[in-house]
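Suppose you are handed a protein chain with no further information: no name, no annotation, nothing but its sequence. What can you learn? This example shows the usual starting point.
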Amino acid sequence: MKEDISKVSSEKLLQLAEERIFSFGPRDLASALSYKNMCYGLGKIIYVLQGDAYCVFGPDATITRNKGRWLSGFGYGGVIRWCGDNIAFPEIRPNACGMLLMRLNNFSSKEDLIRKASEVEEKEITLEGIEINPDFGKGNHFFEIYEPLEVSEDVSDVFPEDAYFAILHGSAPELKDNMYSWEGKGERVETPLGDITVLYDDEAEKYYKEWSYLESFSKRRREILAREVVGEHEAISNLTHQGLFSKNEARLGCYDSMEGNGDVLFPISLRWDIPTYVFKGKQNLTDKIIHRLGFYERAERLDLLEELKNVNILPHGGGYDLKLPYGEIEIISTSFGNIFALSGLEPAPDVSEISIGKGVSKFGEMVVTDPKSLPYTYRGKRVIGKTNELELGEMRAKLRPILTIKV
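A reasonable first move is to predict its three-dimensional structure. Written in structure tokens, the prediction is:
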């Protein structure tokens, strides 16, 4: 970045950040909120670095329901990269969430699985002396059983038609406080968009080392809990979709599609009432797709074209879908933090909701500091459609959920 940004205004810094956000998220409220919020988090990073950082949002771009992450200015469903290896931003809050996709060696009955999953809650299970607290029912974490619906011939040995499969979606909450505590250990840097905690040099190295342990622990934790519920199984993949993928790259809710040189299988889990899709990864984005998205000239001007060609993004799910009819977002900066004012209601779908005089809806504007309290569901197959359209990966299997366990 050639421009001196040490004395820029908050408005200019937001412009610099927005120019460096490339989003192909859906046109909905959750995606729009995430985009708006990321301008603040990315802007802070750019100011600290006095150099380049950028973000790419995938087809599942959405809010984060982690309050601390949101209030720090970060959205979800994307990749953040910055220059320099010896600097870290702990307010991104990596938690090593991921999914273990497995083939079951035996599947006795639904009742037996439910009983075993419930009993795990009462067992004393440890990993490296740390007691494991199962979280099958917390947030969007789950244990789910499947049968195959469609399988490509090249992976038919992995997904035989007479077998059952499972996914365990979870992180390592036992170590979360340790990881998040780094927010209070670094240097607090003031920027035109608010303060941000920064770790430099040795602190950044220690932070990344602790992250690496957290990720390893999280993967082993998923394996242990899976054995407790389904017994011995064959792991197909055990992949992280939330965390640090290098010292200067964070992925929030998306895979690296070239992990294992793209030769691994990535589950994309949408909802309990929709099939789970399994993809092989591809290097992305292609020149053709960058042109189609309208990113080419901007990326070339910012010297980010090669970065976009190797962003290698693949969603892990559909993302939160906010069930509110607002179409406009205004951000009001206060000493308390950013306030998001939602307005621009869509036309009322029913005559009973039309108010006299206003003619749109009987509901008014809404003002929130973070979106955790907003009503939500999960997006569906349109995310898969966009993943295929943008050539982010190649679909190899479709699995039908037959039992979702949240206990």
